[in-house]
Amino acid sequence: MSPHEAGAARRRRGVRAYCAAVLAWTVAFMTALVVLPPGAHTIAAAHADSSSVTAPGPAVWIPTAGDPTTGTTGPNGSVTVAQTTNLVDQTVHVSWSGFTPSTGPFVSFTGNTVTAVMYPVVIYECRGTKPAITDCYGSSHYDQNAADGFQQKNEALGTAAPDFPRNSVPAVTHSDGTGSADIEVYTATQSTTLGCDATHQCSLVVEPNYGGDATGFDSGTMNCADHSLDNDSTFTAAMIGGLNEIDQNNQNGTGEQCAWADRTVIPLSFAPVAGVCAASSSPVAAEGMPMLDRALAQWTVGACLNAADPVALLYSSDLTEPQARGDFMAGSSGADMAFTSLPADAAASSSRPYTYVPLGNTGIAITFFIDDAKTHVPVTSLKLNARLVAKLLTQSYDVENFATSKSHTLSVLGNPTCLFEDKEFLALNQGSGVTWPSCVVAGVNTLPIVAGGNSDLVRELTTWITDDPDANAFLKGTPDPYGMHVDTYYQASKYPYPIAGFVSQDNSGPPKDFTSGKDWDTSANASHKFGATMKGFEWNPIQSGLDDVVRHMMQSTATCISWVYTPALGGNQKCGPQNVGARSLIAIMDNGRAAAFSLPTAALPNGTGAFVTPTAPAIASAALDYTTDPKTGTQSLPWGSSHTGYAGDANAYPLTVPTYAMAPTGKVTQALAGNVADFLSAATDSRSGQLPGNQPGELAPGYVGDTPAQAAQAGAAIAKVRAAGNPGGPTATVSATGPASTSGNVAVTPVTVSNNGTASVSYLTSTLGSGDNGGNGLTGSSSSKGAAAATGSSGPAHSISGSTAAAAAVGSASADTAGVGRLILPILLIIGLVLVAAGPIALMASSGTVGARIRSVWKRPARRFGR
Asked: Which of 99, 401, 416, 723 sits a CA distance of 20 to 30 A from 90?
């Protein structure tokens, strides 16, 4: 036998083992690319800032046209990472140019047809700035013997992602050599084995796969210049460009070595995480409002790092607002403060007096990953209204209905199969040019991913729905204009909105087997034994919190469970992840998370009928339209009211909500009162806690700072908190003693500050209109609302109205609500800003700053409902 014949025989004998071994790597990295074409891309992400880095990439591989087994190398490409410093648990946008375009032939493994991609790109987050493959999270070699590198003696199973789900990202390069992807970067809080924090750098590795014999299968030794197998039909796995090859001799289990040689490494620096804050013997315990926890993470860590006299904040974000309010009012030792959006019942008894301190504003965001069914490119804009959201949340689509069905679910009989066949949805989104996914493919995947358990998010959302006349009528049984009706199990007479927590109500299904029309086979191991209750498997609100809602979105996984019983697999299986290019996911979460993970958000109609997304200007505009509850002093949007500022504000985002701290104004020690007041002062300071940014101590993305009215209320309330532990001590008052003089957008107002009866006169300069320096994350020109108008906006600009006799008794705010009406803009600015100069009620003007510590910001509670 000639050497050539011997080599051919050796290759034929290895085919079966070869294909079986490479399948695991294919599944791990290429599943997400199953239907993704070379032209597909991710949505351009935010988070680009001054820390953006562009680095040279490898020399591009240029395969010969028609024969990818030969070719030449060309110029070096480049890789850009949009943000590389002050990182938290968030997504980071990665883009590249000058890479080999990906292609997508069909490949068959053991009779199962899949789509693989030749010349893909893989992105890893890795330990250190000079990582080995064993440092890269999600790699099949992660955390194994670093000395063995790609030649691991025994590859341990289950070690690729020991802490959190795999975050490595497979992606494609467009025909023009460019591409992009978003990767979630983990901190030491999410992955202790990666350990990325302020003192331990990590890196992103961008790895193009340009083929080559990484395993020495052809010649006996690794030769990345040997592309002879790149298009060998016998070795189908090699079609993905050398990513999936295995060395039968040296145990190179993935064949990734050639791809690794072409890697680009971008170092990353992280913001401090909670663990940097020293423990304290006298901490402040706080609970509640998962919608606020990303802002709290930055506030408390920032205060801790500047701590001359630290205040330890022990914060449990996994507890929702109703539980936190109850614990606080009961005087629980774990709830010195409670964070909330809605007030407690004004008539409810409390073990101690309290006040509400406005901390800023955020939104409830409806996020989506939907891919065009024709182009497989992500959809970038989506319109929903209150009735469509109600339909989604009431399981009103007949998702198990097929053209051949012989029995139908009565509760949704006659309704569309899914959102993308709903005529109301199609009419609302007409002209978008999108080919919406087929309901046969999308089905239950369109039912929204939501958090279960009672929360202010759900109460606010469902109140918005019921305040909409069309949605409210739908819930009461009135069909929409096209004849679609509410699922009868959710009709208002049985399940009245608004509600505080989502609970699946419909556990019905077709009364007969929809394939045969006969009775369902309910024997022990029958695959369709749950057919008559199939709607009970459609939708499962997540009981483990908003973090898990985000996690499901990032993994493209709906919360459904298959109603088909499969004994061989252990019963009913959870729905698996959807493939990039064929996604149809919707999730409801807070805007802080939506912004951190760069998720696209749906546009919703406000009081004028204008469709608006939760941008910072839109949230700021809505916050200026709040009305005040005279009983509690808290604010909210008047969704169902006409003749209000909100009803005429075309810029306002409708699901804007305020955030508050419930803080004690009595029955606490002086030390605790001072610590609580110090923390709240830092969080509401326009130079730190209200200043937008990613730095510790700043206001995190997705939030907007206090309005002037809220700032005034916060100042008065914090003064009462500070005085709570020393009721006989000095008091401070701030009052305007003359009219403001203005020049352009600058107001100068004489102010009298009285500390324990000693008065002094100061002159306060303030800027009308916030811009970048107003602490609300806005850019653009000022408006008479004191906030920048949205670009291109034609909505009305509301003037601030209210008392012009500005006198604020900071130490003796009205009752415990600390509620104030809207005052003229200069006076409102005065009240908040002069607190900085008001002696004992100031934080940042004193010699010391605040320290803090978070506990359980990212605590993952036990899962229920199979999530």
From this structure: 99
